[in-house]
Amino acid sequence: MSLLDIRNIHKTYYSGAEVLKNVNFSIESKECLGLIGESGCGKSTLARCLLQIEPIDEGSILFNGRELSGKSERLLKPYRRNMQAVLQNPASALNPKLKVRESLIDPFQQYGSQVDMKHLTYKSERDFIEQLLEMVELPKSLAERYPHELSGGQKQRVTIARAISIEPSLIILDEPASSLDVLSQASLLTLLGKLRERLGMSYLFISHDLPAVQKMCQRIMVMKEGEIVDAFETELLLCADRHPYTKELISLFD
Ligand SMILES: Nc1ncnc2c1ncn2[C@@H]1O[C@H](COP(=O)(O)OP(=O)(O)OP(=O)(O)O)[C@@H](O)[C@H]1O
């Protein structure tokens, strides 16, 4: 059984055309799956549907074999802790009134009782926060700062630390590095790769950046106008029988 199994998803916003058209894919345990496609093709909509922020019109979202779509907030709670998100803009993901320490402990306070910790330990709040900061390669001293006292890269590392604090099985990464400069992007992606290995998580890695997806992911899906038009093992990216649209994307990075 796949960790996440997406079957025949359709989504139309009230305002217009169908944004997701019969989307099908699965993510296996410990796998990093890439999703690439040009701006406006529906990548973030798909992420929001998987996270149950947007309802789908048709189809099925199975997590560990259980249907999520249409479930009440109460029934979704155990799944929410297992499926975390790191989105494009870290500033909007962190509460500006909370110190880093308070932001980091918040998911554990909400969901900690449901978590069977395998990699982190909770001896004291202070020790827990220090473990999290160490995992995302930030100094302990940042625990007492507010978000506006952090750089963009540091903020994004704090959002990653929050996401991993409850040891989810899956993280949806929607352009996690796109607000950063090139060097910070590279080090953030390296960190994400190390954390996936260390904690045994799966990622859905959404990006415009084909070289980054190629570096991070074992498999890649290509989306065009709300449809998955190509899906393949990363090592087969340059195969002659790739979809013409995939070839077009490849040519943009040559
Ligand atoms: N809340 C909404 N209401 C109505 N239309 C929306 C909404 N959110 C997105 N859309 C539309 O749905 C389409 C897909 O948008 P989406 O944000 O999913 O694309 P994307 O591939 O993530 O783009 P980008 O890479 O630029 O973030 C676009 O045409 C967009 O205008």
Strand order of the largest sheet: 6-7-8-3-9-10
CATH domain class name: Alpha Beta
Structural class: alpha/beta
Low-confidence stretches: none
Overall pLDDT score: 93
CATH topology: Rossmann fold
Q: For the terminal residues, how far apart are their CA atoms?
A: 38 Å
Gyration radius (Cα, Å) is: 18 Å
Looking at this structure, what is the CATH superfamily? P-loop containing nucleotide triphosphate hydrolases
Label this structure with key terms.
single chain; 254 residues; alpha/beta; Rossmann fold; six-stranded mixed sheet; four-stranded antiparallel sheet; 9 helices; 36% helix; 24% strand; binds adenosine-5'-triphosphate; ATP-binding
Protein model, in words:
The N and C termini lie far apart (38 Å). The protein has one domain (4-252): P-loop containing nucleotide triphosphate hydrolases (Rossmann fold), CATH 3.40.50.300. It is globular and about 55 Å long. A hairpin with a 2-residue loop joins β4 (58-63) and β5 (66-67). α4 packs parallel to α6. Helices cover 36% and strands 24% of the residues. A six-stranded mixed β-sheet has the order 6-7-8-3-9-10, sandwiched between helices. It has a four-stranded antiparallel β-sheet with strand order 2-1-4-5, with helices on one face. It has 254 residues and is an alpha/beta fold. It binds adenosine-5'-triphosphate (ATP). Residues 4-250 form the ABC transporter domain.
